[in-house]
Amino acid sequence: MSEKVLMKGNDVIAEACIRAGCLHYFGYPITPQTEISHYLAKRLPELGGTFLQAESEIAAINMVYGASAVGARVMTSSSSPGISLKQEGFSYIAGAELPAVVIDVVRCGPGLGGILPGQCDYFQVTKGGGHGDYRNIVLAPNSVQELYELTVESFNLADKYRMLCMVMADGSMGQMMEAVQFKDKEDITVYDKPWATNGMGNRGHSNFITSVNVNPDELEKTNLRLQAKYRLVEKNEIRYEEINCENADIIVVSYGTTSRIIKNVIKKAKKIGINVGLFRPITLWPYPYEALAKHTDKVKAFLSVELSAGQMIEDVRLAVNGKSNCYFYGRMGGHIPAQQELLDEIIRILKKEDK
Asked: I want to staple 4 with a disulfide (CB 3.0 to 4.6 A). Which of 33, 173, 179, 321 is the partner?
């Protein structure tokens, strides 16, 4: 491992892209993720790669489609309104079974909203967003170190399953500066891509990549194959972190920046005799339903803390399945909850549960 260096989150994402072997980037600037483009605009040409600022987000995601189709590791990044514009392209990439990485540094909405942090893209990134029955792998880091590690891993996952993998961070994480330690050598898996449209090679035929299939029987087979692949991802790639959950009175479910706050709330609560647990999903899809559900008989309640009006709470309720009460606490507009207000909410909930 190298020595730790102080870097901004967005710059770390860009460096991780390069370290993962991705030398092709197509994007369009939007705050609070623009530094990713700035970093790659300088570095990729130096490395013989491709940096292209497209005329729009729609153009950028279709360029990603093209680069992936010839077998290249490729990435784009944006923030919430830009991710909305890319959704049709996401569906086409899913239909063509192409690997690609998308970074979403979330800002608050709806509409143009503001450049301050949010987690209000949860539905958009975890439930598909575009048309059709498809899924994206979604990774949710909560530190600059994890921004690096999960961005590198996102390329391995995308290639492994031939699907789109997203890294969802919020604006504060992209802008914050923290110490990060890079590996001397990355854990990169190189996958053969015999499906790529890169000439005949030894195949004796050219590949043709498309998501169009007007034969209903064949299209249904394609969809069933995709669904089988998604079940495989659900079986093999679920990731989460648990802190103090075994003896907790209440478990707070949170990810990203808000989960960092909960770690200090746990310490404050302990001083007044309350055991608070933290359950942090690292994969937002596939969601760790079973891992969360195993705690339903042990705690008085669950609390979902989000920078939204309440989106992940739906997955928390699915996991709990009515066996325990689920509560929600959220902030919007770029506000981040303070430790004391979260502790006050936990005290209020436990008083209610004890009646």
From this structure: 179
**Which whole-number Å values give the CA distances from 156 to 23, 153, 163, in the listed order?**
15, 5, 11
Could you tell me if 173 and 290 are in contact, meaning their C-beta atoms sit under 8 angstroms apart? no
Distance between CA atoms of residues 174 and 196, nearest Å: 33
Using alpha carbons, list the distances in angstroms from residue 62 to 34, 120, 164, 206.
20, 25, 13, 21
How far is the CA of 310 from the CAs of 215, 280, 291, in angstroms?
A: 40, 16, 21
- In whole angstroms, give the CA distance from residue 243 to residue 266: 9
Q: Which residue has the tokens 């993720």?
A: 33
Backbone φ and ψ for 211, nearest 5 degrees, come out as -110, 5
Beta bridge partners of 114: 108
Burial 45-74 (b: 16+ CB within 10 A, else e): eeeebbbbebeebbbbbbbbbebbbebbbb
Contact between 297 and 269 under an 8 Å Cβ cutoff? The reply is: no
Q: Is the pLDDT of residue 36 over 90?
A: yes
How many whole angstroms separate alpha carbon 194 and alpha carbon 63?
20
Q: How many CA atoms lie within 13 A of 112 on its CB side?
A: 1
pLDDT for 102-152, tens place per residue? 999 999 999 999 999 999 999 999 998 899 999 999 999 999 999 999 999
Place of tokens 């992209």: 174
Where do the domains of the chain lie, and which CATH numbers do they carry? 5-236 (3.40.50.970), 241-354 (3.40.50.920)
Q: What's the pLDDT at 2?
A: 82
At 181-195, the pLDDT tens digits run: 999 999 999 999 999
- Provide the pLDDT confidence category of residue 180 given band limits of 50, 70 and 90: very high
